[in-house]
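Batch manifest line 96
LIGAND: zinc ion
JOB: complex structure
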Amino acid sequence: MTCRSCNAIIADKAIVCYKCGTPTMETPAVVARPQPRSRAAVGLVGVAITALSAWLVPMTPEGTWMRWAAWAAVPVATYLTARLIRGSGSGKMLRR
Ligand SMILES: [Zn+2]
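JOB STATUS: finished
ARTIFACT:
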């Protein structure tokens, strides 16, 4: 048969054209791409950490380093979460 995209002659049983890669038949979306569920999990964890640090602020004694640390943890957690969610794939989470 011939490729419906580039008209190359390809084997009758070919699934895709060897030249241009076009599927030889109307393929229903069998190639379901798994949703990056880990990203959502990371987001949830990040939100939880952010909420935890925000919740910790009033728990810490005022005027101590702990109060400042709790304050600092909020934007840091937010930033890290945003970065992790936006980050490009796995294995780079601890990249500096
Ligand atoms: Zn082709």
